[in-house]
Amino acid sequence: MEQDSDDKPQVEQDDADCTVHTHPVPAGELSRYSVYGDPHAEQDIRNYVEGQAREAVHHVERVKQEVVLGQLYEIWDVTSETDRWWVVTNLTNLYSQKHFPSLDYTLSFHIGLMARMSDRSGRVDADDPSPFDEVVRRMDQAQARLGHAVEAEDYQAVGMQLREALISLTNAVRRRVTVPEGTTAPQAANFIAWSELLSQLLCPGGSNRELRQHLKAGAKEAWQLVSWLTHHRNASSLPASIAFESCGTVVGNFIQVTRSAESGQIERCPVCSSQNMRTHFDIDIPPDGQYFSSCGACQWDNHPGDEAASADAGTCSEPAEGSG
Fold it and tell me: Pairing state of beta strands 71-80 and 84-88?
């Protein structure tokens, strides 16, 4: 029996009418449909990728957290203007998904790479937004000089670079603390005097006595060592290497206490009592950037621009009636 020629086109037309055409959601719209979010952590990742990839980021999403040998690694899926990236923390690094399509392979690669980098250098991570960019840059320059040094003059130059890094450190820290009125400020280049004063201001009180003494002693000894290295006519690799590591420790210690003091030293969330507190730096907070804290459990934060944070913390965000 011959099939009616009109039936076949009708069946094909029906199939065509039922075809579902899918259109991907634009990357910039994806965050609107996310149930879970961590705005400040997402902004940190966004700033990092935009700084490294030199292009705008449209979407940031944390897709995985994994603990390996006691270290927590966060994996983020980031979409930018022209590429899609994996961003893995601790230390933070990004990988194009064109070249690293497998998430598990990328994490394994990252852990191995970071282990090798950490073994070579314990310096502060220069990729994080920070008011200490000049300090880190000078430490990087000192490390580069040390790696190529041969003669005594080369190692003396390492010492001079480390001296400049330490002076840059106290200059950066003192811009972020308030020196009490009536206090005689040391000269800008007097590193030892400034390190002692800043230790007092950043770690006040009897409970911080040991920490304060450690900061002072470490800073003084590092300064004396690099000063000796700078003028030592027989300077060599061993003292230069020890001086570099000592200065790196001093830099890391002062950055830590500065961040802690400036963010309010919040160890427990005032809303949910979690100890999962993180410290962030926002360069857009006037006058030249500021640290603030956020809770990884309930997303509370004390960002100066967030009035809700002040209300959650039990602080009045509006002036009292009758106040000027």
Answer: antiparallel
Same domain, 83 and 55: yes
- Domain residue limits at 56: 35-115
Confidence at residue 219, expressed as pLDDT on a 0 to 100 scale: 96
What sign results for the dihedral spanned by CA atoms 231, 232, 237, 243?
Answer: negative
Instruction: Let me know: does 93 contact 114? Beta carbons within 8 Å.
Output: yes
Do 189 and 73 share a domain, yes or no?
A: no
Query: Distance (Å, rounded) from C-alpha 207 to C-alpha 221?
Result: 23
The verdict on 107 and 140 lying in the same domain is: no
Q: What is the pTM of this model?
A: 0.52
Q: Cβ contacts of residue 2 below 8 Å, gap of 6+? A: none
pLDDT at residue number 28? 54
Do 102 and 147 belong together in one domain? Answer: no
- Average pLDDT over the chain reads 80
Q: Which regions of the chain does DSSP assign to beta strands (E)? A: 57-68, 71-80, 84-88, 93-96, 277-282, 290-295
Shared-domain flag, residues 103 and 66: yes
Q: Which residue has the higher pLDDT, 176 or 239?
A: 239
Q: Is residue 17 part of a domain?
A: no
Q: Average of pLDDT values for 273-301?
A: 79
Does any domain span residue 59?
Answer: yes
**Rounded to an integer, what is the distance from CA 158 to the centroid of its chain?**
26
What pLDDT sits at residue 164? 95
Whether the CB-CB separation of 103 and 89 falls below 8 Å is answered with no
> Rounded CA gap, 144 and 244, in Å?
11
Higher pLDDT, 19 or 214: 214
